[in-house]
Design brief:
The protein is α/β, with parallel strands linked by helices. It contains 10 helices and 7 strands. The chain is 40% helix and 14% strand. The strands form 2 sheets. Strands 1, 2, 3, 6 and 7 form a 5-stranded parallel sheet that branches. Strand 6, helix 10 and strand 7 form a beta-alpha-beta unit. It starts with a helix and ends with a strand. Bound molecules: zinc ion (2 copies).
Length: 234
């Protein structure tokens, strides 16, 4: 769309901030709400958790996660959690476009080495039917358009249903819940030198670690983790 057409379009249909209903610019957030998002200033290089000092948290030093690079711009706190909730539980797909664009902007700002594919965390087909969509896929779509990196078509699947991680207490039970829950298509994986897993929010990391291990054992060599928000451990 050329500039005059875009200005005309915005004048006819002014964009509203999804959070405060003020005037939005570019993506559907106003500059004030965008500035107020809770950034993670010093993330752990292994899992993205916020650190007071140093480059890796103690658990990541003891058991290095299977990620070659982690990019998570925000804390799972107000108002990022409101945007994720709006997408997941109220089907506000406009929130996915905001979240995907924010993640894309962060990746460009922090030095992007474009992967071959984006791999949204797959839902089990039963869960996807119930929800009607996969929130990670909805965030991955605008991200893919913004970065010009394609989404891997059928590289990974969730092979057994799991209970919602949010219903489980503690890292051990979350790890057991998703262990072996993913599989990757070997023939495709062997042609994938470098992929980026996309999830909406990372809590203990159990889900994305299980997916990364499945991708690695199928032959993917380099795996990044991209997510919009990092929750603190329960
Ligand atoms: Zn606003
Ligand atoms: Zn860590």
């Amino acid at each position: 769309m050329n500039n005059w057409l875009r200005i005309g379009h915005e004048w006819l249909l002014p964009r509203q901030c999804l959070l405060c209903r003020g005037a939005a610019s570019g993506i559907d957030l106003c500059p004030g709400c965008r500035r107020a998002l809770p950034r993670i200033e010093n993330p752990c290089q292994g899992c993205g958790t916020p650190l007071r000092s140093g480059r890796r948290c103690a658990p990541c030093i003891q058991h290095p996660p299977p990620f070659d690079r982690v990019r998570i711009p925000y804390l799972y706190a107000d108002p990022v959690n409101a945007l994720i909730h709006a997408l997941k539980f109220r089907r506000r797909l406009a929130a996915a476009s905001v979240l995907g664009s924010l993640l894309g902007a962060h990746l460009k700002d922090s030095g992007l080495f474009p992967p071959q594919w984006i791999v949204p965390v797959p839902l089990h087909p039963k869960r996807q039917r119930e929800r009607g969509f996969n929130q990670s896929m909805e965030i991955a779509r605008p991200l893919s358009a913004c970065l010009k990196v394609p989404i891997a078509p059928r590289l990974a699947r969730r092979t057994r249903p799991t209970v919602a991680q949010s219903s489980l207490q503690g890292a051990d039970s979350r790890r057991r819940n998703v262990r072996g829950a993913f599989s990757a298509e070997t023939r495709t994986a062997q042609t994938a030198a470098h992929v980026a897993i996309v999830d909406d929010v990372v809590t203990t990391g159990a889900t994305v670690i299980a997916l990364a291990l499945a991708l690695k054992s199928a032959g993917v060599t380099r795996i990044e983790l991209w997510s919009i928000a990092r929750a603190s451990e329960p």
